[in-house]
Amino acid sequence: MNYLIIKKIFFIAILVFAFQQCASKKTDLNPEASKSTIKGAPSWYLNTQNKEGFKLVSSTATSQDMQLAINKASLDAGNTLASMVKSEMNALVKRVRDETGREDDSELLDQFSQVQEQVVATTLQDWEISKKEVFREKNSKGKNIFRAYVLIEWDEGAAQKRFLDRIKNEKEIYDAIRATELYEEMEDKVEKYREKYGS
C-alpha cells in the first residue's frame, strides 16, 4: 500500500478519535428533571402567585456558567411575558371594536393599536428580577452545571397609566372609547396605581 495512503488513513483515524473524545466531553445543559431537582425548586417557581398591578413570570435555565444560566432564565421569562402581553393587546383591540360599535373604522383601530404597541414596547423594558436562586446539579453524565430560577415582575399599573395618558392626547380615540366599560376599567386600574404610589 502506498505510504501516502497509509499516512492519510492514519491522519483520518486520529481526527475521528479526537472528534469522538471531544463529543464525549460535551456537557448536557438540559438534563431531565430528577426528583431532587423538582423537590429543590423554589416554591415561588412551582406556584407563581398573583400580585395586584403586576404580571409575574417565573422561568429556569441551566448552564456551565452561573451568570449565563441566570441570563438565559431571565430572557426566557421576558419572552413569555411579551407573548402574554401581545395576546392581551389583541383581545383589547377586539374589545374596542365590540364596545365602540365602530367595526368598520379600521383607521381608529389602527391608531388605538399603534398607541398601545408603542406604550407596551416602552414599558415592557421595565421588568425586573424580583427573586433569583441558583443551584448546582449534576447532568446525566455526572458533570456539574448551574440551574437558575428567576421571577420577573412587570409593573402593569405603570403601563396602564402611560397608555391612558397617551389616549387622552389622541382626541379621536379618546372620544370613541370614553363611554365604554373598557375605559372605566382602565381608569379604575390607574386610580389604584395612583393611590399605591401617590403619582
Short description, anyone?
The protein has helices spanning 3-24, 35-40, 43-46, 66-100, 106-123, 156-169, 171-177, 181-197; strands at 54-63, 128-138, 144-155. The chain is an alpha+beta fold and 199 residues long.
Molecular structure report:
- 62% of the residues lie in helices and 17% in strands.
- With 199 residues, the protein is α+β, with helices and mostly antiparallel strands.
- It has one domain (3-197).
- A three-stranded antiparallel sheet has the order 1-3-2.
> What characteristic shape results from the CA principal axes?
elongated
Integer count of domains: 1
Low-confidence stretches: 1-8, 15-19
Q: Compute the separation of the termini in Å.
A: 87 Å
Strand content: 15-25%
Number of strands: 3
User: What about the largest sheet?
Assistant: 3 strands, antiparallel
Find the structural class using helix and strand composition: alpha+beta
The H-and-E topology, N to C, reads as: HHHEHHEEHHH
Helix content: 55-70%
How are the strands ordered across the major sheet? 1-3-2
Tally of DSSP helical segments: 8
Mean of pLDDT:
80
Indicate the radius of gyration in whole angstroms: 26 Å
Task: Describe the SSE topology.
Layout: H1 3-24, H2 35-40, H3 43-46, E1 54-63, H4 66-100, H5 106-123, E2 128-138, E3 144-155, H6 156-169, H7 171-177, H8 181-197
Antiparallel strand pairs: 1-3, 2-3
